[in-house]
Specification:
By secondary structure, the protein is mainly beta. The chain has 7 helices and 22 strands. 28% of the residues are buried. Pfam families: F-box, FBA_3.
Length: 377
Amino acid sequence: MDPEDGREKARVNLADDPSNGAMVQMDLHLLPREILLEILSRLPITSLIHFKTTSHAGYDLITDPRLPPMFRNQGCSRRVRKMDPPQHSEVNNLVGSCKGLLCLSFRIIGGSSVSHSLLIYNPFVGDAVRVPPANRFLNQLEVFGFGFHPRTGQFKVVRIVWYEKIMAVVDPALDVEEVDDESMVQVFTVGKTEWRNQGAPPPQLTDEIGPPEALVEGSLHWVTDVGMDGDGSIFGIISFELADEVFEEIPHPPCPQLVSREYSLSVLNGCLSAAGFVDAVHFDIWVMKKYDVKESWVKQFSFDPCFRRGWPNFFTVICALKNGEILLKKEDSSLVSYDPVENRFKTLQMSGLPNLFQALPFLPSLFSAKATMNLQL
């Protein structure tokens, strides 16, 4: 074989940005593998996925286990992309997002209760793993959380389930039973095969809560009613630490007007954030600069959203953008960015966005769901 022919086959054109046609030419056989991986880690993920399909050499490089931790999380375009998870027809809920992996739930209706099937999915790599089904109970209501703890290096799914337990049959002829309300916390460590029971949730986590709203420092967080004062309920923060699998009450912001009503949680620049209306006009965003330290709460933003209509807390904070703006989701399922420097709002127009949707922060990655979880579909 002509050496030049072999060299040509090892040369790959990789689009830096497929939308504008800019190209980077890589002569694979001339560069050490470590340098090739470093180059690839700096490119947009859309280019890497394209590169994966160009040749056997490209596939070999993209699937190198050393590449995902090096990936720089280059952003993608603002186009709305539709991605269909395998083997399921309709996603019921986005449970969570972590390290480029999504945990999705699919509703299963049967018998006297509703249960859910869970899938962990990387929409860019395209692979997924199923979470084994958890126990089903009488008239159950369940919520899920998904996260990763950096100390253990483990992904975990947390399930809180409320259900009815038959205590005694009072009258078999009339089908009358004595039942009691029960609750349970179950944890699934991804890569294992079974759910583990971790006792009952704390009394503050009732069946009125929703899924956890923020993953910070390896802990999932909920806002819930934690007590009373002279003016009514006090809303606080309950966390579930994924390494030791324990619940804890986290100090809430020192803002009586905020915590006297239910507020929302998010993650801003890696810190736990709490946000909500403190009166009929002002919307405040507090940030906990040092995790689990009450004195580190600071009010970082306070503004009057001039577009506001109706009941307070009608929009939530999604994340901080690279340009310093804050991404918000309105109750009518539109996205708005707030520029704190100019004190200005801008409605984001995104082609292909559905009328109703959930929104959560997501950083694309090359982590393979199968490889990371050590599970098979």
